[in-house]
Write a structure and sequence with these properties.
422 residues; mainly alpha; Growth Hormone, Chain: A; 0% strand
Length: 422
């Protein structure tokens, strides 16, 4: 992250000689959230709907197991791509900027994967397609998130981060809305993601990107490559506790979304032909909860200069929403649970990204460090598809949702250990 943008009240900012001045763009506080919205639209339809439905078409008897396999492998690819892309973008000296070339590359590669999913004749091709898609979209995501500390001063990050989170999570509604407009087939698989990528590229193109004038002097060998995936929590404990909080809350969120189509079919009794529509309705209700808390949470956080109370409260609310889902046997109760869960996750996401940028340990490795932080979002996507079938088999869907609520509580406890942010 550029030291000229990592500022605190009363402290002067300093411009390192290797960074072209001035690095900020006035468009960035608007463009970054809208770009995140577009990237989410590209990613959400396969993640929530189309992969699950395609697997039921390709191999109906093994759909649940195959969904876990496909999502798990894709999440591992996200796990690898995110911090690696952040590290590479920190070192990029392109005349087009540090971040934008990787956003373009990632979006193009991601759509190749989406196209493979749409035409996949078997589970193997679909798995490879999702691996490519996750790799590409997470390259774009890492570079896009790194623009936040590049472009936005600390005093405004809560508000901008809340809009980023709002854009990212409204995509649950927008993406599933686009999917249910099309019958199962090529259009359902290809059009929603194409719309999202066009939005992403259109809004990010005019942003003036941060540029490096000179190549970093630090070598980039095997040691540095593997260092892209870790940080030392003993040296940076606040970042470690923030990482754990994010991990716990995203476990909570993904317990309610990963197997949502199958939950609706198996427990609520929704017909398979209506699943896409009901998933859209559920994410719409969830999105209402998100909207009610996201913008307000970011604004209040900036006004009060406090982050932790909002994270703790949001984790408790999310846990309550998951407990309601655990008791649901009809659509009405399920929608209530989604509304409460959305309110909790929205409040959490409105402040946690700002909190994380406040505790980043290094001004020169913000892309890499944010990439490692994003592992806390990708890792649950890898672990849940592997663990969830066994949990559902042993305890049913209520056990899965109760487990998610427990992780929300753990997230609330872990954030209390952060010392240098109020």
């Amino acid at each position: 992250m550029d030291p000229s943008v990592k500022e605190t009240v009363g402290e002067p900012s300093h411009q390192p000689p290797s960074v072209a001045a001035p690095p900020r763009s006035r468009l960035a506080p608007i463009a970054i959230p809208v770009a995140m919205f577009g990237l989410g639209i590209a990613l959400v339809p396969p993640l929530l709907v189309t992969i699950a439905l395609r697997l039921r078409q390709i191999s109906p008897d093994n759909a649940t197991t195959n969904l876990g396999l496909v999502l798990g492998v894709g999440a591992v690819c996200a796990f690898i791509a995110n911090p690696l892309a952040g590290r590479i973008s920190d070192r990029t000296t392109s005349r087009f900027g540090m971040r934008k070339p990787w956003i373009l590359f990632g979006a193009a590669l991601g759509y190749v994967g989406i196209a493979m999913i749409a035409v996949a004749p078997n589970v193997g091709v679909l798995l490879v397609g999702w691996a490519i898609g996750q790799t590409g979209f997470n390259f774009a995501l890492a570079a896009l998130i790194a623009m936040l500390p590049d472009q936005v001063p600390t005093s405004r990050r809560g508000r901008v981060a809340s809009f980023i989170s709002l854009g990212q999570n409204i995509t649950l509604v927008a993406g599933t809305f686009l999917v249910q407009l099309f019958p199962a087939g090529l259009a359902q698989g290809l059009v929603p993601s194409a719309v999202g990528i066009l939005i992403l590229l259109a809004v990010i193109a005019p942003v003036r990107d941060r540029r490096l004038e000179h190549r970093p002097t630090e070598p980039f060998g095997i040691r540095q490559l593997f260092g892209s995936f870790v940080f030392d929590p003993r040296r940076h404990p606040d970042l470690g506790w923030a990482w754990l909080t994010r991990f716990c809350l995203f476990v909570s969120q993904f317990t309610a979304t990963t197997y949502l189509p199958y939950f609706l079919i198996d427990r609520i009794g929704v017909q398979e032909s209506q699943t896409a529509t009901v998933v859209f309705q559920a994410t719409l209700v969830n999105g209402v909860g998100l909207i009610l808390t996201t913008v307000l949470g970011g604004w209040l956080s900036d006004r009060s200069q406090r982050r932790k109370p909002f994270v703790i409260g949001s984790a408790v609310v999310a846990g309550v929403g998951l407990l309601v889902l655990a008791t649901s046997t009809d659509l009405t109760t399920m929608f209530v649970g989604q509304l409460i869960l959305g309110a909790g996750i929205g409040a959490f996401l409105s402040v946690e990204l700002a909190l994380i940028t406040d505790v980043l340990p290094s001004d020169e490795t913000s892309g890499k460090d944010l990439g490692v932080i994003n592992i806390a979002q990708a890792l649950p996507q890898s672990l849940l598809p592997t663990a969830a079938p066994s949990v559902v088999a042993a305890f049913g869907y209520p056990g899965l949702f109760v487990g998610g609520a427990l992780f929300a509580v753990l997230g609330a406890l872990s954030i209390t250990r952060v010392k240098n942010v109020r």
